[in-house]
Write a structure and sequence with these properties.
Layout: H1 9-21, E1 26-37, E2 43-48, E3 53-58, H2 60-66, E4 75-85, E5 90-100, H3 104-119, E6 137-142, H4 147-159, E7 165-169, H5 177-190, E8 194-201, H6 215-223, E9 228-232, H7 240-244, E10 247-248, H8 252-259, H9 263-297, H10 299-343, H11 349-392, H12 394-399, E11 404-407, E12 424-429, E13 432-437
């Protein structure tokens, strides 16, 4: 540095700042005063003792990580580094951590326990459970008559007034709090109707919230088989319970918004779904009716029934003719019998009776044989006609491995241009129908064997 060469104020301030930054990290003890959190989230204050004062700033990211801040007038330990604020030429302490005097041991215990439990997998994301959309009941573990309980109940009732709530009272502060909180979680986890649990407490200092940093509580949260939400303290407060829970809520009020839906919105969603389902059902029914009507009109499917009806009519006609023939034969037999009886007058009555009886037996046998032959011939012709009809039936052709292909419009597909790629086709096979989409088509050239096509 040349002493005779003038420096700008900015340059001098910059050099002072560099020198102060080389000073390294510091841990300073003093009284916190004039605390103010700007809209940006940065914290500004002064740190003083009986002989000196220094400005203090803590950037928003550090404020969020720090959690609960000591109150004005408290003795604190500040960890940070020195810097210069150029516009005022004022050096200041940029804090990365502020703890109340005597809380350094708690912070160290917090970090050590957090590292140990995290290594044990209690905070792993893969073990966290999703919250149910509509729980049968909400379980709450908190102090009876607390503001946190009132806020949580108000939030739940405002969103879903009919939601059942099961409260497991417990201490949330003090030496006995950890055991009671863990026991309350266990009771709610065994409740047959509780589908989601909220562990709640209002804000406070690190000592006030320490029960939610106890290993007993953290392990109870991690072992809970029911989805559980941590709603401990304010948004800036952080406890180990927040890491072990399936979800963390900023406040008890926010927890109520997380665990239950808005009843009116659910009802509207159900009404919309019901209306949509009705529209889809009506559309499907109409489409199937139209498709069925089209099939009924098609000759390929309507023909076999009509042909069978015609064959049945012809069979009825054959039966009628057979009856007429049998009636005529019987009448002829009766005429011959009468003639034979007339001739009996010229011969011996006994011989005439015997001869007539023999003729009658022979005529009866002939009549039965003729009738049987006619019935057999009629049955053979009917079987032959039915076999021919089955051979000509489109359903028989389909049963042999062929199929009937129709376009979306219900038209029979005979050429490739009637089912271009991307179109949807309906394929009739022997035991049902296939719905397919044409991916590609391949023309068949002369003297080239038939090729299949791909469909999905």
């Amino acid at each position: 540095m040349e002493p005779d060469r003038p420096l700008t104020v900015a340059t001098l301030t910059q050099r002072i700042g560099l020198a102060l930054e080389d000073f390294g990290p510091v841990l300073v003890q003093g009284e916190l005063s004039q605390v103010k959190v700007a809209p940006s989230g940065h914290l500004y204050a002064t740190l003083k003792d009986s002989a000196a004062v220094i400005g203090l700033v803590m950037w928003r990211s550090a404020v969020v990580r720090n959690g609960a801040l000591p109150r004005e007038g408290e003795q604190v330990l500040v960890r940070g580094a020195l810097s210069v604020y150029g516009p005022r030429g004022q050096y200041q302490l940029v804090a990365t951590r502020i703890t109340a005097q005597g809380q350094g041991d708690l912070a160290a215990r917090f970090e050590a326990l957090k590292a140990r439990l995290e290594a044990a997998g209690l905070f792993a994301d893969e073990r966290k459970l999703p919250l149910p959309l509509l729980p049968r009941a909400v379980g709450i573990a908190t102090a009876t008559g607390s503001a946190a309980l009132a806020d949580l109940l108000h939030s739940i009732r405002a969103r879903f007034p009919a939601m059942p709530v099961v409260i497991a009272p417990c201490l949330v502060q003090g030496a006995a709090a950890a055991g009671q909180i863990a026991a309350a979680i266990g009771r709610l986890d065994l409740h047959p109707l509780v589908d989601v649990i909220v562990v709640a407490r209002g804000g406070g200092s690190i000592e006030d919230l320490w029960a939610f940093n106890e290993e007993l509580v953290v392990r109870a949260l991690a072992a809970c088989t029911t989805p559980i939400v941590s709603a401990v303290g304010h948004e800036t407060d952080t406890t180990l319970a927040d890491f072990a829970a399936d979800l963390r809520a900023k406040t008890p009020t926010a927890a109520g918004e997380l665990v239950v839906p808005v009843a009116a919105e659910l009802r509207q969603l159900c009404r919309d779904g019901e209306a949509r389902l009705g529209e889809l059902k009506d559309g499907m029914v109409a489409a199937m009716r139209g498709h069925l009507a089209g099939l009924a009109k098609h000759r390929a499917l309507a023909g076999p029934g009509h042909q069978l009806a015609l064959r049945r009519q012809r069979l009825d006609e054959q039966h009628a003719r057979l009856d007429a023939v049998m009636a005529g034969s019987l009448e002829d037999g009766r005429a011959r019998l009468r003639l034979a009886q007339a001739r009996l007058g010229a011969v011996s009555p006994a011989r005439r009776i015997a001869s007539a009886r023999d003729q009658l037996v022979a005529a009866t046998r002939q009549l039965r044989a003729a009738a049987l032959r006619r019935v057999e011939r009629g049955a053979e012709r009917l079987a032959t006609a039915a076999g021919r009809l089955d051979a000509l039936s489109p359903l028989a052709v389909i049963a042999r491995g062929y199929s009937v292909v129709r376009s979306d419009a219900g038209l029979l597909v005979r050429r490739l241009d009637q089912a271009p790629p991307g179109s949807t086709i309906d394929i009739r096979v022997s035991d049902g129908r296939l719905r397919a989409q044409v991916l590609t088509t391949q023309p068949q050239r002369l003297n080239e064997p038939s090729a299949g096509y791909d469909a999905s």
